[in-house]
Amino acid sequence: MRPPTYRLFSRPVVARLRWQTGRDRYAKSERSKDPPTMRRTRRRPSTAIHAPAPTTGRHLGPTSLYQPMSEADVDLIIDTSIALLARSGVVFEPGTEADSLLTAAGCSVGEDGIVLIPEAVSRRALETVGKQCQLFDRGGENPISIDCAHTRFMPGMTCIGVYDETSGEPRASNRDDLARITRLADGLPNIDAVCIGAKNVVESNLYGEVDEFLCLMENTTKPIEYLCEYPVSLDAAIEMASLLRGGGDALRARPYFLHLIPPLPVNFAAIHIEQIITAVRAGIPVGVGTLPIGGASSPITLAGCLTHALMTDLAAMVLGQLVEEGSFCIGCSDVNFMEPATGAIGSFSQNSLADMAACQVRHRLGIPPLTGTGGCSVAPTFNQDAVWELSSNMMQMFYNRPATCDYLGSLDQGLTFSEHALLLCDDLAGLLKKMWEGVQVSPEQIGADMIERLGPRGQYLAEPHTVENCRMQVWDSRYLGANFPLSNNDIPQDDLKVRLDADLQARLAAPGPPPLDPALRAQAGAVVDRFR
């Protein structure tokens, strides 16, 4: 097995470095201004809301994917998953349209729901499945691409609690909490789209989950990510999104939301089958993924759990392509493991490596790896444990390169949403975007002429090269970086949570996004009211 590879420079950059060895090859840059005087000074913390950081989220090109497995190992996992679907199969609950679609494709459909999918059918689906899609904001503008070249950050996902603003203790979440979290995410510079951060637990019914879609529409202008239990809830979401766009064809042309569907491992209930078929026919981008727990619902080993998860993904993609070839209906299962000592999800080393491996497999298949696991923590509150885990798994996204990272702000094993955690994760997403810009290599960036001119005892502080480039690769953090309390600056020595809370209160007090058009709000509200 070859060692893991990771390239900070692209191959063309390495080639240029090897070629440009002579002094005569360096082009001297023109200096159009005198060097300004620079002096060390104390930096005071900014009280203004920072301007948005670069929002491209592009990582492909300037830096490279980390690959923990050899290509042969990746191919073995893919080939084994395809073979197991043909021999062991997957369950599709009988009695849905999937029965006829799968039968017509040559699959063996048993009366007990076990479906054997021939290898040729699985491989055909991998060839035809849509490899990218775009999501447009509420106004039908500012598209973001969901693909293998970018990472999109979102708050999430469907927590059932929040931390009470007075006591700090967890409590059941409600619609007001979802609205507040959504407005907060709308104003964060590194959040690209908004998922359901917290459920309206009081309305744990059809009305509640349909109304959650409307709540997202009302409180953010960004694209959204939605998931629900019942197919009729998806129907209602598509109806509201069509009203927003001005019709179903307009929604297909400019998709407003990415729909997630969470079946059980290798077992599709009728409610999940119907959602796949409905979303694909409406032109809604779809991610279908289970949450296997190694040692419980799936094999305990990394390779075994990953293979088992991929079987679910492949089966979903087969069904999606049988409905409409070329549709964006891709598998996106997370790979989790039981902590043997506690029985809970939380084996950090296994989860981290498995997420990295899952991303590598999906990049190999050419499909965007959705639902990256950065931005969440098993810690029960926003404490030092949470900060460690959030920082660790967010930083890991630099290497994993998921297409979406939509658990930002989730604590307590996914049960409770933390706005402080969301703010920290948004800041760390800015760090990732800055680092993904990579190392710029050029004669001007190297500055060989300046190095030679100044000599071994040179002082670079007042050089134009320093002035022009001193902030080019600096992370503009709201809480750390230049705003880090140090012993030699006058920034108050406040704990990180205090600094986060000050920013949180300012953001919550700021105006939210523009309201929905009253006529549209009334039409969408009428859709929701049908479920009361």
Question: Quick recap of the structure?
Answer:
The protein has 532 residues and is α/β, with parallel strands linked by helices. It contains 18 helices and 18 strands.
Unreliable segments of 5+ consecutive residues: 1-54
Oligomer: single chain
* Mean pLDDT rating: 89
| CATH topology grouping of the domain at 127-437 and 514-529 | TIM Barrel
Cα radius of gyration in angstroms: 25 Å
Query: What is the level 1 CATH name of the domain at 127-437 and 514-529?
Result: Alpha Beta
Name of the CATH homologous superfamily of the domain at 127-437 and 514-529: Trimethylamine methyltransferase-like
User: What structural class do you assign from the helix and strand content?
Assistant: alpha/beta
Tell me the distance between the termini.
59 Å
Please state the second-level CATH architecture of the domain at 127-437 and 514-529.
Alpha-Beta Barrel
Content of β-strand: 5-15%
- Helical region count? 18
In which order are the strands of the major sheet placed? 2-3-1-11
The total count of strands amounts to 18
